[in-house]
Amino acid sequence: MSENLAIEARGLAKAYGSTRALDGLDLDVQRGVILGMLGPNGAGKTTTVRVLTTLLRPDSGTARVAGFDLATDAAQVRRRIGLTGQYAALDEYLTGRANLIMIGQLGRLSGRQARTQAAELLERFDLTGAADRGVKTYSGGMRRRLDLAASLMTRPEILFLDEPTTGLDLPSRMATWESVRELADTGTTVMLTTQYLDEAEQLASRIAVVDRGKVIAEGTPTELKNRIGGQRIRLTVESASSLGEAAAVLARYADEPPRTDRALRLIDAPVTAAARQMPAIVRELDAAGVLLDDLAIRQPSLDDVFLTLTGHRAEPEAGDHDALVLAGAQVQEQI
Amino acid sequence: MAAIALPGVSLAPETALTRFWWAIKDTWVLTRRSIARIVREPEQLSDVTIQPVIFVLLFTYVFGSAILLPGGGSYHQYLISGMFGMTMAGSAPGTAVGLTTDMSTGLIDRFRSLPMSRSAVLAGRTVADLLTQIIGIVVLSATGLAVGWRIHNGFGDALLAAGLALLFAFAMTWAGACAGMLIRSPEAAQALGFIVFLPLSFVSNAFVPTQGMPSWLRAFANWNPMSAVAASCRELFGGPNPAKLVSAWPMQHPELAVVIWSVALIAIFAPTAVFLFRRKVLR
User: Fold this and answer.
1) What is the CATH number of the domain that holds A128?
2) Mutation for B interface: A91, A113, A121, A154, most B CBs within 10 A
3) Do residue A202 and residue A180 come from a single domain?
4) What count of Cα atoms within 13 Å lies in the side-chain half-sphere of residue A330?
5) Residue from B105, B110, B118, B125 whose CB has the most chain A CBs within 10 Å, to mutate
6) Can you give the residue range of the structural domain that contains A252?
7) Closest listed residue to residue B206, CA positions, set B106, B59, B72, B105
8) A257 and A201 in one domain?
9) Is the ipTM of this complex over 0.90?
C-alpha cells in the first residue's frame, strides 16, 4: 500500500442483473490531484463514486480510500471524504444555513464549529444573502453551490463530485470550477466524474477514461492526446456530394483513414507535419474540384482520444462544441 | 499511518460507548431537523391537529346520538379516550410518509457518506414524530373539553394516560418506519394509512364497545393494542369503560397491556426497521 495514494482500487466489479456496471475497474489517484473520470452515460462513473464513498458494496474487488480499506474500515473512510452527488442532497424545507449546520454536526463538528464553518462557506460560495431562506426558493445554481459547500463542511481530505456541473448554465459551471481549483490548491484530493470533455480538460490534472465499467486509459490530458498521435487536419466541404473525393485526397496524406461526418460535412484525420503538407493537400483538393468552407490544423481533443479508444463519442451531443462554448460566446460559426 | 489532523473531526477509533453517545447526538440533530421542517411547513401537522378535531366532532354529533354504551355513560367521555388510541396509531403512516420522502431524495446518500450513526436516520424521524404526537394530545384534550369531556380522576392519572398513549405512539412510529422501508413512494405510504391503519383503528373499542361485534371480530378487537390504549385512558380519565365487562386479559389490565404491547412492538419493529434500512441502502 502506498502512503501517497488517496484512492487505490483493484478489480472493482458490480453487476445489476445482467448489466455489469463495473467490470474489473482499477484506479490509482495520488493525493492532492484533481482526477477527472471521463466517460459516457452508463460507463460506470457514478457506480465507482458510490462504491468509493461507501454507499455501495462491490460484488468483488478491493479499494482503499485515504488509506483505509472500504470493506473493513468504512467508518474511517467516511470521516475523511466529502460527497456531492448528481442530485442536490439538501433538505428543501430547511434554510441553506440550517442545512450546512446539520451536515456539519452529523459530520461530528460541535455546534459552534458547525456554525462558524457554515458562515465561512456561505460567504465563500456567495450565498450569505440567501442563507436564511428555505432551499426551496433557491435556483439550480444556488442549490449546486450549497450542495458543494455541504460536502466541504467536514473539511474532507478527499472530495468526490459526481457530475458537479450537469444542468448548470455557463456562469455557474465556471464558478463551480473555480471553487474546485481553490480546493485543490489547499491540498484536497478531488475526484470528479463528467461527461463533458472541456470540464475534464479545464479542471483535471489527470484523466481516467472509463468505458463499460473499466478504466481504459489514464494519464494527464497531454499524455492521453499524445497517445493518439499529433496534429490533425479538419476540413468542411461546401457540398456533401464532394465528401467522397475530399476524403480520398486527405487519405493519401493521413496517418489513418479519415473520419467523415456527413451531417456537418466534416472530414478529419491525423496528419504528420500537417502545416508542411497543407499546400499539397489544398492543391489536390482544388484539382479535384472540391470547394471548401473551412480548413484547419488542430491539436487532438479529448474527444479524439475518446473516439480512438472506445470507438464512440464521449458525449451524446456533438463532439468538441463544448471546448468552443467554454472559450466564450463565439459559438461555432465556422461550420 | 500518518493521519492528517483536521480541526473538529476526531479521527480516533471509537468504542461501543462513544458510538452510542454519537447515535444519541445524531438522533437529536435529525429530530431538530424534522421539527424545523414542521415550523416551516405546518400543514404537515394536519394528522395531529385538524384530523382529531374533525373526528371528535363527527363522532360526537353524528354517531354519538345513536350509540348506547353497555353500563351507560356519556358518549363524548367515551370517545375522547378512543381518539387518543386512534391519533397515536396515526403516527405510523406519518412516519412512513416522512421516511419514504427522505429516501426518495439524495439526502440519504449524503447522510450515509457522513460518519454518522446509521440508526439515527430512522430514530431522528421517530423521535420527532413522537414529539408531534404531544401536540395531538393537547389538541385532542382541548377539543374534548370543548364538547364536554372531563378528567375525573385527577391530573396525575391523566398524565399517566397521556404517557401510556405516547409510549404506544412511539411503538407505532417504529411500525411506520418498517413500512417506510418496504414501500417506495410517499403516496403509497399515505395509501397504506387508509388501507391498513384506519380499518385496524376501527376494529377496536375506540369508537364503539366491542360487545356488539360478531364473536370472531370481538376477539380481535379485544386484543387490538388500540383497545388497550383506549381502555387504559378511560380508566385513568374516569367515566364509562364498558371494556371492564370484557373478560379478555388486556381489557382487565389495560395499563399493563399497553406497556407490554408497546415494548414488544418496539423490540420487534425498531431492529427490523434498522435492518431493512441497511439492506435497502446498500444495494
Assistant:
1) 3.40.50.300
2) A91
3) yes
4) 4
5) B110
6) 229-327
7) B59
8) no
9) no
